Structure formats: structure tokens, C-alpha cells
Amino acid sequence: MKTFAIGGVHPPENKFAEKQPIEWLPPSGTVAIPISQHLGVPAKPVVTKGDKVRVGQLIARGEAFISAHIHASVSGTVSKIDSITDTSGYRRQAILIDVDGDDWMESIDRDQTLISDCSLDAPEIVKKVHEMGIVGLGGATFPSHVKLNVPQGKKASYLIINGVECEPCLTADHRIMLERGEEMLVGITIQMRALGVEKAIIGIENNKPDAITHLTELARKYPGITVEPLKVKYPQGAEKQLIKALVDREVPSGKLPIEVGCVVHNVGTSLAVYEAVQKNKPLIERVVTVTGVSVKKPSNFMVRLGTPVSALIEAAGGMPEDTGKVINGGPMMGKALNDLGAPVTKGTSGILLFTQEETPRLPELNCVRCAKCLTVCPMGLEPYLLAVLADKRRLEECEEERIMDCMECGSCLYICPSGRPLLDQIRVGKNLVGKMIRERSS
């Protein structure tokens, strides 16, 4: 069975919510919608305090090429534009809206009837995806219109759809494939038209046999779309690893997938593209998994953007008494939250509640030169060396050792028997090296 060649680990899957259907979580109270929910330049607000807004209305415009529009996820009154603590732990500007009813823009088609045929040509599709604020929902939140706009001189051969969801605990994508598979497939055909490709491959790990069977059957009606089962191995959902597993092409260091003729999109993104193009619906909500060993009701919620994390936890049965840490994302790449009032954003795939027993790290010991971090690194890096160089601020050497190729998957931290904070040190080093590179090129 196919998989990527270098590194990888096998953490416990703990997919507690995989059998739980998607539930709709109604908005209430006040939502805080950050103006930067994407990779790139923050959007600029086009509303002010006191303005009445409707669901789907543009409230912040992404003016740069690598940026994304932000739309109101609720109807109500803009109470203020202020800095709030988001799920990254940083203070960022957001538009706060007091919810009043659920009044949608008339331009949005709320009928659940499937619309299979798309009459738009490639430039029109890219424009619509841009207008609707669609970004990658797998975590990176890269603006989708940029990926669909193939640079001059490049050619896409494959559209690869990430249905791997290799991060433990998360099940949002799994449920989308089971419950919204037909719409997702139409979204894939729309992306194929935009890219001018004839082949799309949906990669799904074989721990989701129901999704593999379901989509394989549905895909029979859609020429050029195939479903490829993959061996379970983390982090197979990363772009470069998924491309290697499915089409045996290697993306060069520092380059994007289009260099090898591939464009990668997540299954949630494909559903959002369908809704944007066929229903004129902006990205105002997404599926979020709320789970954990002690969570009373592990769930998959369809949540309006801007909803506080605390509301999701309450809907899943409340905060367990033995909670030691709340994670935004999964256990491998997620980050701890310091404020449960932080809002759900386009990049929020899951909220994980760790017990106190699960939260302590191993005591930090000296490196024993076991080389386990080398063997599991999917990028073929030397994590122990990068961590030391970053800690000593030897940034030029960090750059030479390809620290910017690190995807921060956490495999090295997971496998280290000495409990060394390899990922933490490498993250600091990446930030410093990135700043150095930007200053050098300015």
C-alpha cells in the first residue's frame, strides 16, 4: 500500500468522534471575527461600529494577492473593532458582532439541492473563490484562489485532494467525506476545470474504510476522479508527503507543489469551493472536532466563524474536571490555548481537551545521540542539530541546514526519549531565520 518514503511515526489514533454525525451549532451572543484568518496580508475592515450586517456580507477586504476576504458569519450589529486574543495566543484585530437573529444575504442559495453542472470558465471560478474568501481548511489557510491561479510557465497535471486526516483525534474531514461527499466531488470537478487538469486523486488512509468505499462508489460518476487508499502513517497529510505517496514526485526544497505539476487541496476546502461557486456562499462556517479522553460527548460541529471556543466545549458536555490543557488543533501540531474566549477561525480544525495525566512532558534530559529524531523526520532533516543551532542563535547555520523546510509536524518531539523540546527550539529558530531572510531581501 502506498505511503511516503522518509520518516513518519504512528501515534495512537484516538478517533473518538469518528462515528458522530456533524451537528449544527447555532450562533448566539457575540462573535469575534479576526481580520487575519489566512496566510498572507490581513484584510482591511469595510464596516464600522454601529453598522448592521447580514450573514455572508463582506466585512473585511483582502486587498493583497495573498490575502482573503472576510465575511460576516452572523447577522447583527458591529459592536466594535478591537484587538482580541485569538487561538494562536496573540492579540489580533477582530470585528465584534452582537448576534441578532439569522438574516442571510439574498444572494446566497440556501437550498440543499445538489447542483452538479458548473457554467463558469476557469478565470470566473478563480474570481468566485477569491470573492467568497475560500482558504485551505487543512490548517495552513493558504488562500485558495492563489493555488488555483497557476503561474505563467507552470502547468498542473494532478489535483490532489487530502482526505488523510492523519492528525490523531481529529475527525472533521472524515465526517465531511461521509456526509457531504457528493458536494465535495462537485467541488473537485470545479477545481479541475479551474486548473485545466484531467486527473484528481483523493488520498485517504486505510483507517477510514467507510469513507474509501463511499467515495469510490460516488466517484464512478465523475470522470478523472479516483480514490487511493494509503497506509496509515503520520504526517501523510502534509503536501509534500502526500504528493510523494500518490504520484511519486518530490517537491524540491523551498518550492511549491506546482513545481512538480501538483495542486493540493483539503476535502473541507473542496466542499467550500462547491458552496462558493454553486451556492454563492462565502466561507462563514466550518466543521470542528471537539474531543478528548474525558469529554462527555466527543462531537463534530458545523460552527460559525467567530464563535468562542468555550461554546463548543459547552456543547460537547462541558469542561471535564480533570482537564489539564486545551489544544487548538490536534495533539501533534496543535497549540495550547490560554483563553477559551478565543474565536473559531477558518483554520480551526479541532479543539482537544487533554487530561492532567496526558499533559506533563517527560523531564528534559541530555541528548543520548540515539538518532531517533533523524529517522522519523519526514523532511530528512537533523532535528537535534537544528534545535542546538537555534538555541545558540547560529541562524546562518540553521538556514544552511534547511530549517525553513521543517513543517513543524512534531515527530521529533514525539519520539525523543530524553524529552528534549526539539520542536519548540526549531520553531523559534524558524521565526528568527525567516526574519533574517526578509531583512536581507528588503
* Main sheet makeup: 6 strands, mixed
Radius of gyration: 21 Å
The CATH level-2 architecture of the largest domain is identified as 3-Layer(aba) Sandwich
The third-level CATH topology of the largest domain is Rossmann fold
Strand order, largest beta sheet? 1-14-13-17-15-16
Structural class: alpha/beta
Structure annotation, total helices: 13
What's the number of structural domains? 3
**Percent helix among the residues?**
25-40%
- The rough form would be described as globular
Q: What separation lies between the terminal Cα atoms?
A: 46 Å
> How would you state the average pLDDT, rounded?
95
Let me know the CATH homologous superfamily of the largest domain: NADH-ubiquinone oxidoreductase 51kDa subunit
Strand content of the residues, in percent?
15-25%
Sequence stretches where pLDDT stays below 50 over 5 or more residues: none
Order of helices and strands: EEEEEEEEHHEHHEHEHEHEEHEEEHHHHH
Question: What is the number of beta strands?
Answer: 17
CATH class of the largest domain: Alpha Beta
Descriptive account of the structure:
The chain has 442 residues and is α/β, with parallel strands linked by helices. The chain folds into three domains: 22-99 and 284-355, Ubiquitin-like (UB roll) (Roll), CATH 3.10.20; 122-279, 3-Layer(aba) Sandwich (Rossmann fold); 372-441, no CATH class. Helix content is 28%, strand content 20%. The protein is built from 13 helices and 17 strands. It has helices at 122-131, 144-148, 172-179, 181-195, 209-218, 239-247, 267-279, 309-315, 372-376, 383-391, 395-400, 411-415, 422-441; strands at 22-25, 30-34, 44-45, 52-53, 58-61, 70-71, 76-85, 91-99, 158-162, 199-205, 225-230, 262-266, 285-291, 299-304, 323-328, 335-336, 350-355. It has a six-stranded mixed β-sheet with strand order 1-14-13-17-15-16. Strands 2-8-7-4 form a four-stranded antiparallel β-sheet, with no helix packed on it. Helix 5 (209-218) links the parallel strand 10 and strand 11 (225-230). Helix 1 (122-131) crosses helix 4, helix 3 runs parallel beside helix 5 and helix 4 (181-195) packs across helix 7. The relative contact order is 0.15. The mean pLDDT is 95.
